[in-house]
Amino acid sequence: MTERTRLPEQGETWPRLQERLGALGANDVDWRNKKSAVYVFHPGDDVISVAKEAYALYQSENALGPAAFPSLRQMEEDVVGIALDLLHCPEEGPETGAGNMTSGGTESIILAVKSCRDAAAAKGMDVRGASIVLPRTAHLAFDKAAHYLGLEIRRIEVTSDFLADPDAMRAAIDERTLMLVGSAPCFPYGLVDPIPAIAEVAREHDIWLHVDACVGGYLNPFAEREGVAIPEWDFRVEGVRTISADLHKYGYAAKGASTILHRSAEQHRHQLFQGDDWPAGAMTTPTVAGTRPGGAIASAWAVLHYLGVEGYREKTRRILEARRRITQGVEALGMRVYGDPRLALMAFGPAEGDDLSIFGVWKGMHDRGWFSGVVQAPAGIHLMLSPSHDEVADTYLKDLGESVAEAREQGGKQEAAPTRYA
Ligand SMILES: Cc1ncc(COP(=O)(O)O)c(C=O)c1O
Description:
This protein has 422 residues and is of the alpha/beta class. The protein is built from twelve helices and 13 strands.
């Protein structure tokens, strides 16, 4: 048994602690050298420094108290305004949008599901055990939301192109279905689901459609400006009611920052929690969290303004170039990319009929200092690319070639999938 850590009697000096903190990271993945393609988004040292300094300026402030910190209220309003604009929410009429910053994609998704559930309950529906119909590729955060909120999850098989199948989703709906989901893009394969076709199903049955753009919310708008062809995926599509879009992914903000966006303020009302039966007076909060870190809000606000449209376009071009080169290299090694990813995520594995152990290849890459996720059924290596990966794409491919050769020498023996989050 490891010994429990205890609070030291005497405090230590900051220089000593700084040294210890550095040492604690000795075995961490080397993301500063761009060798991680998951968890960290490396947009360049200047952006990281803006995110960090802005965070530090507001690290003690608390967005639970907007009356005490009008600064944070203004920054959150600015960020939500920017997001609604990027995601084509109309500026006039009854549906001009509303939203909040949250701690991350999972919280944004939980709030979208809660809003949808409470809107249905307000119309008199018995929502206990009501269902969410979603493609198999949608993020597990929906299962978490359903688990917390007492709902049922119905995962529907995707097509042979790994895309949501709107007809199969239609067939899974019944009178107790609350929500449909599409991803833009999905995490496993980086593919944008056919949102317009899913929206048609949602409109036919008057069901809430959530688009999970946790990955794409701050990437797709710039990829589209760079000429990347993807199906319409945002508020341009009638029937899309909420969108989750993460600032701490391709918004390049410090961790702890996402946005939940509603088509209308009327919908957003159902996101709020209100209570007053305790001695400290009434409390209304729009998010799961009570205390909300000012630093995360300031960091996102600063990075958005630091990069601007031009900055994000430049980062996006670099990601697209890295993906293009890695795709070419993967195919040159005789492997195949799953589906037709056009953004920053991709997964690849052996060609049909090839018994190459792709998890053996993953292990070879891991031994060479690279860190990324995997997919299963079919088995593959998963990459979540950052702008800075354009600097290391060639080294990655060289190491990949060696790892493939090694795995082939070991004769197609399939390694077990490495466990995520273990
Ligand atoms: C498509 C998608 N949705 C939701 C999430 C959950 O986001 P978070 O880890 O910020 O809670 C992720 C995380 O990678 C994601 O890729």
